[in-house]
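This week, think about what follows.
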Amino acid sequence: MATIPPATAEPGQMTHREIMEALTGLLLAMFVAMLSSTVVSNALPAIVTDLNGSQTGYTWVVVATLLTMTATTPIWGKLADLFSKKLLVQAALIIFSIGSVIAAVAPSMSVLIGARAIQGLGVGGLTALVQVVIASMVSPRERGRYSGYIGAVFATATVSGPLLGGLVVDSPLGWRGCFIMVLPVAAIAFVVLQKTLHLPVVKRQVKIDYVGATLIMAGISLILVWVSLAGTNFDWISATSFALVGGSIVLIGAALWVEARVATEPVIPLRLFRDRTTALATAASVMIGVAMFGATVYLSQYFQLARGMSPTEAGLMSISMVGGLLVSSIVSGRMISTTGLWKRWLVGGMALVIVGITLLGTIDAHTNLWVVGLFMAIVGVGLGATMQNLVLSVQNNTAPEDLGAASSVVAMFRSIGGSAGVAALGAVLAHQVTGSVKDGVMSLVKAGKVTPEQLADMQHSTGDIPDLASLPLPIRSLYENSFGDAVGHLFAVSVPFTIVAFLCILFIKEVPLRTSNGPAVQPSTEDELESAR
């Protein structure tokens, strides 16, 4: 099989040293964005217990960030086509830092959720803008090489975040320290960007589609509220359910009409979806978001509530997944830059995700930890070869003037899938654990293993996240078994979504990566595509 020769530098193109200097600040900014989620993951059980929250509150501490990140990612992408990219990244860092300070002093779950929403505004900017800036500096052919660095940062943040978060929670700082510790990193990233990132500013008339963005966020929010609260606060089939679902459909329909007919510069340019690669990659991103965010976000609960681990120990368990992700992302990125071919990595990576998620669907509270770690490593290897390269396939097919919008659309829909997955699977988890615990408690009372007085002394209801240390031993064992079974069930529920993502990737037409930042050139025949391979 012939390989495509490495790209040569073009006149005016940044040297590798200049790119690496600028990349340092960008990767620090990306590290901050990743750390905001991973550092809190192992602190969530302690946070919700301290603030007397419920499983729904646990879910929305995660969803609030994903939701605002989702809604604002395309706006940041559009702004990147209009304003200084450096100033936008720095603005995103400032917004993120403000949200972190509020979260650190939050006196209640509602304030914490609001602060996490503010953090999401900044994370949305950092997630979209780092990809856009790198795409502006590097040709698609060479981008795989630098995508490997992004994968390494992602892995580092994912490894160090839970570990650092666990250590901080177990220290005198408590869980509030998790929000304080990211501030110095954000400050360093701000300074480094100021010194190293120098890109030309393309000035155009500003026309931001705020109406479309608001309608999209409102429509998604209503459906997530319905998924999170239905079955607990109101019936699935009720006037409230019909109002929320109907309102969501109306708002999303209005958003599509605004994007197609009204907005001069739409947040989501619907014309992008005429390209098969963009349409299929976006659909795959939604499914990956559901499976990745929706299931893995509850692994921390599994380790702490089903296996009795401390936050630090739960953080150590995450090494297996992110270690696989680190190796996979670096190797796949370098191989793609060498050959110019990427589809085989997407297909192989997604196949491994299916296998790993399916295997995780078999775990319970008694599965050997080394077996759980092995299953997590398989998922990590698959995600490392899939996530960044899916964005790369879209960027390769997109005209330079649409680069920001196209990159942010993929990230946005992955976040939409993640938000929906976290909310829906959180509702499934809460329902299953509540039902299992209530039935189990009644059996324990009848068997005389728990007295009515012990039940009255419990500070949490069966629908809330318990403080296991304060529970009678029989009830503690009941909670551990219930959470172990429920989390395994969440992975099993996620399998169909990974299969749909695999099918979408399978039908993406491979186009060899361009060696410049000009428009993509599609092979006109299958013979041409085969010869490029």
Notes: The chain has 21 helices and no strands. Confidence is low (pLDDT under 50) at residues 1-12, 459-463, 519-533. The two ends are 7 Å apart (CA to CA). Residues 403-446 form the longest helix (44 residues).
